[in-house]
Amino acid sequence: MAILNSQIMWWYLVNTGTILSNGYFRFKPNYLNAFPLPNITSKDEEILESLVNKVIDFKKENRTEVTKQIEQEIDNYILNMYNLTKEEKSLIFSL
């Protein structure tokens, strides 16, 4: 779920999905079929699960400033799993 909610997934959907009037996007399940998933190790799973659980806990406490930091940490971790360059990362975060 961390990958599906990540900045790279949003970038992918925005760049491959259909743009409707007024800037809305149409997202269909078929749009996800071609999305490449990185090799995920058990260590990656543990780290991402821990970070996601922190986000859930802080959202329950309504601490959005902390959740935004952790969500960015999750995005950075996922981008590193794809071995992207700095230029590619800045392109994805420019949305």
How does this structure look, described?
- The chain is globular and about 35 Å long.
- It has five helices and two strands; from the N terminus they run αββαααα.
- The chain has a two-stranded antiparallel sheet.
- Helix 3 runs antiparallel to helix 4 (64-81).
- With 95 residues, the protein is mainly alpha-helical.
Sequence-ordered SSE layout with sheet pairings:
Elements: H1 7-16, E1 18-19, E2 25-26, H2 29-33, H3 42-60, H4 64-81, H5 86-93
Antiparallel strand pairs: 1-2
Helix pairs in contact: 3-4
Please summarize what this structure is.
Helix content is 63%, strand content 4%. The protein has helices at residues 7-16, 29-33, 42-60, 64-81, 86-93, and strands spanning 18-19, 25-26.
Please provide the ordered H/E string of secondary-structure elements.
HEEHHHH
Side-by-side strand order of the widest sheet: 1-2
Question: What is the C-alpha radius of gyration, as a whole number of Å?
Answer: 14 Å
Could you tell me how far the N terminus lies from the C terminus, measured between alpha carbons in angstroms?
20 Å
Helix content: 55-70%
The helix tally amounts to 5
Which regions contain 5 or more consecutive residues with pLDDT less than 50? none
How many β strands by DSSP? 2
Derived from helix and strand composition plus strand pairing, the structural class reads mainly alpha
What would you call the shape? Answer: globular
Average pLDDT score: 89
Percentage beta strand? under 5%
Main beta-sheet annotation: 2 strands, antiparallel
